[in-house]
């Protein structure tokens, strides 16, 4: 596997083909997931070989956004299947990478240790100090694509999402879950101040 060449290829593709309206799902998010995934691999003692597979999955996990936001995980997997053989990745390795990409689809559904790690890396911000900043970028992205209209609607969605979300690795359960619950409590208090029907819309 020529990981460095695959990394250069996909980052060039993301830089040139992603919409400038992807305020959340931009290259910065892919690099953030890559960094956190690498960190989790070190802390959890993942082998060098599996770390390369996971880092490759992190780089490709949102590549589907170069085509469409709909079913972007499947599209990202297809991009990996087309291009990774050029960098010496085997069918078996690409299958594992696609499993990790598909595991990030909301609601997350990891079946292996590596899939758990990429899922936690993808939503690591939910328990970080930059939560509100990153959440605001996702709100702006959804509003730009006319997927959401008001901040009130967004806050209701955030409460529903945080209530349903779980971290999977012992590392993020310990270091991210407590702060995530603080954010959830604050958002629930905010939503409770809204007038009218307090039911939460589906989706995220």
Structure write-up:
With 204 residues, the chain is an all-alpha fold. The chain has two domains: 1-122, Orthogonal Bundle (Hypothetical protein af1432), CATH 1.10.3210; 124-204, no CATH class. 64% of the residues lie in helices and 0% in strands. The chain is built from ten helices and no strands. The chain has helices spanning 3-17, 27-44, 48-60, 72-83, 91-103, 113-122, 131-144, 151-164, 170-175, 177-191. Helix 2 packs across helix 6. The longest helix is centred in the N-terminal third of the chain and has 18 residues, at 27-44. The N and C termini lie far apart (35 Å). The model is unreliable at 198-204 (pLDDT under 50).
| Percentage beta strand | under 5%
* The CATH H-level homologous superfamily of the largest domain: Hypothetical protein af1432
| Secondary structure: helix percent | 55-70%
What's the N-to-C terminus distance? 35 Å
Structurally, the number of domains stands at: 2
H-E string: HHHHHHHHHH
Q: How many β strands by DSSP?
A: 0
Record keyword descriptors for this entry.
mainly alpha, 204 residues, Hypothetical protein af1432, 64% helix, disordered C terminus, 2 domains
How would you summarize the topology of this molecule?
Elements: H1 3-17, H2 27-44, H3 48-60, H4 72-83, H5 91-103, H6 113-122, H7 131-144, H8 151-164, H9 170-175, H10 177-191
């Amino acid at each position: 596997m020529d990981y460095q060449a695959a990394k250069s290829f996909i980052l060039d593709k993301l830089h040139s083909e992603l919409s400038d309206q992807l305020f959340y799902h931009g290259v910065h998010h892919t690099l953030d997931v890559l960094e956190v995934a690498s960190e989790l691999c070190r802390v959890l003692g993942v082998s060098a070989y599996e770390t390369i597979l996971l880092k490759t999955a992190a780089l490709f996990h949102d590549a589907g956004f170069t085509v469409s936001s709909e079913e972007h995980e499947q599209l990202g997997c297809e991009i990996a299947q087309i291009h990774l053989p050029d960098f010496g990745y085997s069918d078996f390795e690409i299958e594992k990478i696609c499993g990790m990409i598909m595991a990030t689809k909301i609601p997350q559904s990891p079946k292996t240790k590596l899939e758990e790690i990429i899922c936690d890396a993808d939503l690591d911000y939910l328990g970080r100090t930059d939560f509100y900043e990153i959440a605001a970028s996702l709100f702006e992205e959804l509003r730009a694509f006319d997927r959401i209209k008001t901040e009130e609607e967004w806050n209701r969605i955030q409460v529903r999402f945080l209530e349903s979300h779980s971290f999977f690795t012992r590392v993020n359960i310990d270091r991210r879950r407590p702060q995530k619950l603080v954010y959830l409590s604050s958002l629930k208090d905010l939503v409770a101040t809204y007038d009218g029907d307090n039911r939460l819309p589906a989706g995220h």
